[in-house]
C-alpha cells in the first residue's frame, strides 16, 4: 500500500510540475511541499438589464472612477485605481474603439454622470460601484463585488447592468500525507480579481457592440475570401435581392443572429477608388491580388462568380447606380488583366446605394457601404 501511495504521489508531483500550476519543494527527510498560485474564485456574472439589439455605430464612451460604497480610508483613491484596472483590461481586449477614463471625475449619481458625459460628447457613460471590498494584500484573503452600469447620454437611460463578485483566499495548506499543498498569494490579488471580473464583463459588452468587419463578411486574405465565397453557394445566392441580401444579413447581425463571419453574400471587399471615379487606387491592388488568388484556388477554380458594386448615401440614386456598375466592371477588368482570372467566369452588376450594409452615419460605416461583393453565380452552376 505504501508503494502505491508513493507512486501516486510521484505522479501527482510530476503532473503539477509539468502543468506549471505550482512549484515543488521536494523534501528528503521532511514532507514535500507543493505551492500553487491562489485562484480567483468568482460568482456567476449577473446581468439584470441588457440591450436587445446590437449597436450600429461605434460609440464614444466615458468611464468614471469607481465609487467605493464602504467607509474606508482613501476610498476615492481606491476607486480611481479600481476603475483604472478595468479600463486597462477593456482597452487591452479592445472592447471599445474610444474609451476615455478620467480619474479626476467624482461620481455623484447617474444623472450627474450622464450630464457630464453628454457635455463631453460621449454617447455612453460607464459607472462602477463597489458595495463590498476586502483587501488582504499578500497576507490575507481579498474579496470584491463590482457593479457596472452603462447609461446612454441622449436620454439618460440605463442600457446595461452587470454584477459579479470575486474572491482570492489567503494561504491554505492541505496535508496529503506524503506531501502538503500550499496556496500562495500573488503580489496583487485585488488586481487579479478585478481583471478577471472585467474580462468576464467584456463578453456581454462585445456582444452588444457593432459587428466587426469579419462578422459582416469582409476579408483581406485569399483564405478568408475563399471561405466566404463558398458560403454564398449554400443559400441560393443574393443577387436578386432575396432573403440573403446584404441588407437582410446586416439586419441579422445587428440582432445578434450571426457571429461567425461567413455569410450568404460571399466576400465583401473595401476596394478604394479615386473620388467620383471607377479607377482603382494602387493601395487596393494587393487586396484584388488576394481575390484573384482565391478565385484560382482549388476550391473555386473554374467556378463562375458575380462581382457587385455598392455605394454610400452621397449622391443621387441614378448617379450611384451607374457608378457602382462602372466600379464592378473595373474590378472585373483588373481580375482578368492583372489577376489571370478568365473573364467568362466573371459577371458584374451594381446596386448603387440601395443596399447599405450599415447605417451611413460615420465615415467608417460609409466606407463599409462603398464595397465590392463577390459571390458564387449560383444561376450559372
Topology-level CATH name of the largest domain? Rossmann fold
| Low-confidence spans | 4-21, 235-262
- Sketch the major β-sheet: 8 strands, mixed
Based on the structure given, which CATH architecture of the largest domain is correct? 3-Layer(aba) Sandwich
Distance between the termini: 71 Å
Mean pLDDT: 84
> Could you name the CATH class of the largest domain?
Alpha Beta
What structural class do you assign from the helix and strand content? alpha/beta
Question: How many structural units, i.e. domains?
Answer: 2
Question: Which features characterize this protein?
Answer:
60s Ribosomal Protein L30, Chain: A, 381 residues, Rossmann fold, alpha/beta, 10 helices, 2 domains, eight-stranded mixed sheet
Amino acid at each position: 500500500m505504501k508503494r502505491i501511495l508513493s507512486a501516486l504521489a510521484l505522479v501527482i508531483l510530476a503532473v503539477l510540475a509539468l502543468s506549471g500550476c505550482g512549484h515543488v519543494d521536494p523534501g528528503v527527510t521532511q514532507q514535500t511541499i507543493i505551492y500553487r498560485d491562489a485562484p480567483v474564485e468568482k460568482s456567476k456574472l449577473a446581468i439584470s438589464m441588457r440591450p436587445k439589439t446590437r449597436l450600429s455605430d461605434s460609440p464614444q464612451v466615458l468611464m468614471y472612477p469607481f465609487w467605493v460604497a464602504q467607509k474606508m480610508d482613501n476610498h476615492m483613491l481606491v476607486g480611481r485605481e479600481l476603475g483604472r484596472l478595468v479600463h486597462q483590461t477593456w482597452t487591452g481586449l479592445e472592447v471599445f474603439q474610444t474609451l476615455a477614463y478620467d480619474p479626476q471625475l467624482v461620481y455623484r449619481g447617474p444623472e450627474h454622470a450622464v450630464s457630464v458625459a453628454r457635455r463631453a460628447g460621449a454617447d455612453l457613460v460607464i459607472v462602477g460601484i463597489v458595495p463590498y471590498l476586502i483587501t488582504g494584500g499578500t497576507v490575507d484573503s481579498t474579496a470584491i463585488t463590482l457593479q457596472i452600469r452603462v447609461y446612454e447620454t441622449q436620454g439618460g437611460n440605463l442600457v446595461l447592468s452587470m454584477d459579479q463578485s470575486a474572491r482570492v483566499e489567503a494561504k491554505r495548506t492541505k496535508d496529503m500525507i506524503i506531501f502538503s499543498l500550499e496556496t500562495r498569494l500573488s503580489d496583487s490579488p485585488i488586481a487579479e480579481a478585478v481583471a478577471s471580473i472585467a474580462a468576464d464583463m467584456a463578453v456581454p459588452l462585445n456582444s452588444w457592440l457593432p459587428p466587426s468587419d469579419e462578422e459582416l463578411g469582409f476579408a483581406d486574405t485569399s483564405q478568408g475570401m475563399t471561405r466566404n465565397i463558398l458560403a454564398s453557394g449554400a443559400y441560393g445566392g443574393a443577387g436578386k435581392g432575396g432573403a440573403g441580401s446584404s441588407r437582410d444579413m446586416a439586419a441579422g447581425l445587428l440582432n445578434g443572429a450571426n457571429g461567425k463571419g461567413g455569410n450568404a453574400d460571399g466576400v465583401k471587399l473595401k476596394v478604394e477608388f479615386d473620388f467620383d471615379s471607377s479607377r482603382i487606387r494602387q493601395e487596393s491592388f494587393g487586396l484584388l491580388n488576394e481575390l484573384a488568388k482565391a478565385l484560382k484556388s482549388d476550391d473555386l477554380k473554374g467556378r463562375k462568380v458575380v462581382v457587385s458594386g455598392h455605394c454610400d448615401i452621397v449622391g443621387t440614386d441614378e448617379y450611384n447606380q451607374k457608378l457602382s456598375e462602372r466600379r464592378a466592371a473595373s474590378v472585373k477588368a483588373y481580375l482578368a488583366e492583372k489577376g489571370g482570372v478568365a473573364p467568362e467566369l466573371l459577371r458584374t452588376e451594381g446596386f448603387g446605394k440601395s443596399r447599405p450594409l450599415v447605417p451611413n452615419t460615420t465615415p467608417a460605416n460609409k466606407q463599409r457601404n462603398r464595397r465590392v461583393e463577390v459571390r458564387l453565380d449560383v444561376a450559372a452552376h
